[in-house]
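Please, structure for the following, as tokens.
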Amino acid sequence: MVQSILWMIYEYFLCLMEVFLFYDFLEAMLKRNEKVKKIYYYLSIILLSFFIFILTQIKTYSMIRTILLFIIFLLIGYKLFKGNIKEKVFFTTMFYLFLLFSDVLAVYILSYFTGKDIKNIVINQTWARVLFSQISKLLLLITLRVVKNNYKETEPDIPKYYWYWILLVYIISGINLLAIFNVGLIANDLSMKIQYLIVAISIGSLLIVIITYYIFTKLNCFYKDRNNYRIVKIKNEMLISEMKEKERIYEDVRKLQHDFKNHIICIEKLLEQGKVESANEYINGLKGEVSETCMWIKTGNDIVDIILNRKNLEGNKKNIKMDMKVNIPKDINIHPWDLCTILGNALDNGIEANEKIENENRRNIKVNINSYKDYLLIEISNPALFNPIDEEGKLKTTKKDRENHGFGMKGIKSVVEKYNGILNYEYSKGEFILSIMLPMEKKS
């Protein structure tokens, strides 16, 4: 009786250790979902370990048990950890494969050295099962530690079809391991050559998983570098565009200065002849020309002035009410081109969102830029037809070519990360609000 109770305690301890390793692995790869209360988080650990313990008591290593446990792991990963569904499925599947591999390899190694059959090691409550469970968990711990130490925390930029192919490889490897293990359980007396072959296949399956994961990390780096290149390209294009705009404005100002005397003479002659209406039409025509040439928003920074005035003019042409309140301190450490990246991309997104609104009276963009203590605060808001933020807190797009879009927000994120700032966006009462805080140090 006492021995039976001690054995059950030991079995539960193994289940608890398995759950801890699972949670630790997903927390390292995905981070814990902070919306879930800690009490529920830790309670789920106890409940899951009890559930696994009950399953092991019913029938060890049945196919139904294995599939059911994998589904439970997926649900836990989906509810308690951050990331999109692809990442959650990917890393949960990876953990489960390592779990299967450690069990398969441990039991065959122990069977080889002890001469006991696999079924006897796995099912019977003997010292062989104790040793098997310890070797298995040790192999799992080492494998997970190697993966975590070589994992670089980045936001995956891999296209969907690569995710599906990698996941397919994982699933096939998992089925392969399960088939091998079940062969060992059914056929108790396996020849040494077959045992060697099974161990070799198990190691081969693990190598496939590791190589696939290596390919995953390399693909992620490749697409991240490609996206960074696109962001830099967009920045350069914006810079060239702003320089051309600046040259155009200066050219228009010089033209106005050159023609100013002639304009005055024409207005004077019209008034002398009593043609007041013609003089007013002439003046109104000049007003339109001057409004497109003059820069009404003055921040003291030429590049920022250009981008704000240009977007202000573009918004007005599309019947968008532009409300800009800007006060940028002089001699701050934030490069004008970085501010240009933030404002240009954010205002482009705001104008695009407003164009989808049929009621022109609702079209508006509000820009507030001010300093608060040691931070430069930037807040840009605009109406939106739908909530652009998904369940994971990431922005979604309605464009069909999703792979080649979203670089505007990535450009903004790169600037915020560069200055160790804070980026936040929210959707409230039909309005999208982008808030940015950038540390603001005065230049010495």
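The first helix runs from residue 2 to 29. The chain has two domains: 2-230, 298-444.
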